Amino acid sequence: MGTITERLKTNGKSSFTAQIRKKKKGKVILNLVETFASKQAAENWLKRREKALKRPGGLESAVNAKARKSVSDCISDYIDASPEGFGKSKSQMLSYFQRLDFGASAIEDLMARDFVKIARELLSGLQARPPAKSPGPSSASGEPSITS
Question: Where is the composition biased (Low complexity) (predicted)?
Answer without folding.
Answer: 135-148
